[in-house]
């Protein structure tokens, strides 16, 4: 008999990584558990998941699987940089604010240069200014632009906005990394194809959402320019990011991709966030901080209201890049949970 600790009240809006494993990923995980297969990614599940990414992104890319997003981002950035290079990112970027210096650590010191821009998005003009403001040997040479899609504040880059940035990168000989911890949310919201939103728009490498989309563990890294992936497998191994029983990451990934669950999960999370936004708009004490374009709603709430919601057991973050509250929806967020939150909000104000 298994005894489990009591689950956290499922009515939470703290993060899409509070959620469990979605049924499709779990089915494939359990199926992959039958029998023995070769280790270290030499198995058929990993081959099939890799090929499925190539189909879906319409390109013969190199695909790697690692345990989490911090590893995906920091190892990718390290592989695109020498230690004397720099990475331009938004001041609210996860690589800057939430990875404990992992990109700098993995790269032996490549410095992050912080750019500004409205709604969590890089301003191309400010990026260009950072690239060109110094060319002397005393300044770390800009080599990569890192952008997040969907952004840390729940907004989206349009294809035109991506191209405005990637064109400048090309012009000055920089590479472009996309942190796609919520790429599927951006994808379904944009109505574009995976190719249109990445390599056709000039993205060189994508770190692609597994965990927040409905996996238990595991992000995928897609190098659209295969030459950039040279020796990347060694970097993963050295960093402790080569899973020996790789099928337990790659099979759930195949489940997400083959069944279309990755898109359905993202669509559901986005739809729930849209519903939550619509409800919140009716509360005069609450102000929307950013356009709600994916699965997160960012609002300004009076502090006594925040305190009261916490007292009633609600979980959400109030420290992510803004002075407001972040309400995050996931593949398993329910209308009932949103209605219960709204009832408590209306009662408390
Ligand atoms: C969650 C997240 C990541 C990955 O975080 P890990 O905790 O390392 O898996 C990366 N980028 C963004 C924007 C995120 O929200």
Descriptive account of the structure:
With 349 residues, the protein is of the alpha/beta class. It has 2 domains: 11-18 and 262-348, Aspartate Aminotransferase, domain 1; 23-259, Aspartate Aminotransferase, domain 2, CATH 3.40.640. 40% of the residues lie in helices and 14% in strands. The protein has 13 helices and 10 strands. Strands 1-7-6-5-4-2-3 form a 7-stranded mixed beta sheet, sandwiched between helices. A 3-stranded antiparallel beta sheet has the order 8-9-10. Strand 5 (175-180), helix 8 and strand 6 form a beta-alpha-beta unit. The longest helix has 20 residues, at 261-280. The radius of gyration is 20 Å and the shape is globular. The mean pLDDT is 96. Bound molecules: pyridoxal-5'-phosphate. The site of pyridoxal-5'-phosphate has 11 residues, from helix 3.
Each distinct ligand: pyridoxal-5'-phosphate
How many helices? The count is: 13
The CATH C-level class name of the largest domain: Alpha Beta
Task: Write down how many β-strands occur, each being a DSSP E stretch of 2 or more residues.
Answer: 10
**Helical proportion, percent range:** 25-40%
In CATH, the architecture of the largest domain is 3-Layer(aba) Sandwich
Query: From N to C, what is the helix and strand string?
Result: HHEHEHHEHEHEHEEHHHEEHEH
The number of domains: 2
As for the CATH topology of the largest domain, it is Aspartate Aminotransferase, domain 2
Under CATH, the homologous superfamily of the largest domain reads Type I PLP-dependent aspartate aminotransferase-like (Major domain)
Strand percentage? 5-15%
Report, as a whole number of angstroms, the end-to-end distance. 45 Å
Instruction: Please list the strands of the largest sheet in the order they lie side by side.
Output: 1-7-6-5-4-2-3
Report the biggest beta sheet as strand number plus sense, adding barrel if it closes.
7 strands, mixed
Structural class: alpha/beta
């Amino acid at each position: 008999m298994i005894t489990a600790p009591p689950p956290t009240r499922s009515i939470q809006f703290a993060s899409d990584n509070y959620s469990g494993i979605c049924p499709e990923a779990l089915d494939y995980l359990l199926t992959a558990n039958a029998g023995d297969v070769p280790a270290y990614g030499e198995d058929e599940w990993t081959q099939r998941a890799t090929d499925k990414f190539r189909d879906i992104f319409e390109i013969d890319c190199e695909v790697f699987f690692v345990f989490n997003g911090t590893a995906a981002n920091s190892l990718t950035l390290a592989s695109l940089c020498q230690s004397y290079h720099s990475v331009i990112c938004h001041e609210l970027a996860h690589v800057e604010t939430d990875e404990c210096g992992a990109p700098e650590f993995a790269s032996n010191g490549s410095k992050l240069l912080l750019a500004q821009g409205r709604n969590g998005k890089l301003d191309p003009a400010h990026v260009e200014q950072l690239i060109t403001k110094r060319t002397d040997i005393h300044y770390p040479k800009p080599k990569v632009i890192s952008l997040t899609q969907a952004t840390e504040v729940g907004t989206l880059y349009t294809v035109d906005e991506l191209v405005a940035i990637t064109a400048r990168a090309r012009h000055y000989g920089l590479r472009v990394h996309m942190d796609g911890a919520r790429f599927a949310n951006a994808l379904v919201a944009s109505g574009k194809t995976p190719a249109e939103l990445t390599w056709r728009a000039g993205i060189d490498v994508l770190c692609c959402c597994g965990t927040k989309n409905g996996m238990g563990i595991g992000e995928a890294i897609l190098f659209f320019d295969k030459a950039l992936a040279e020796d990347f497998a060694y970097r993963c191994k050295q960093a402790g990011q080569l899973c020996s029983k790789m099928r337990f990451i790659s099979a759930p990934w195949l489940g997400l991709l083959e069944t279309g669950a990755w898109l359905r999960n993202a669509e559901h999370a986005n739809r729930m966030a849209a519903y939550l936004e619509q409800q919140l708009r009716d509360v005069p004490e609450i102000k929307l901080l950013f356009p709600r374009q994916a699965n997160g709603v960012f609002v300004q709430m009076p502090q006594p209201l925040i305190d009261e919601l916490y007292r009633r057991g609600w979980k959400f973050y109030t420290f992510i890049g803004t002075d407001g509250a972040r309400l995050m929806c996931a593949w398993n967020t329910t209308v009932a949970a949103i209605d219960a939150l709204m009832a408590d909000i209306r009662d408390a104000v």
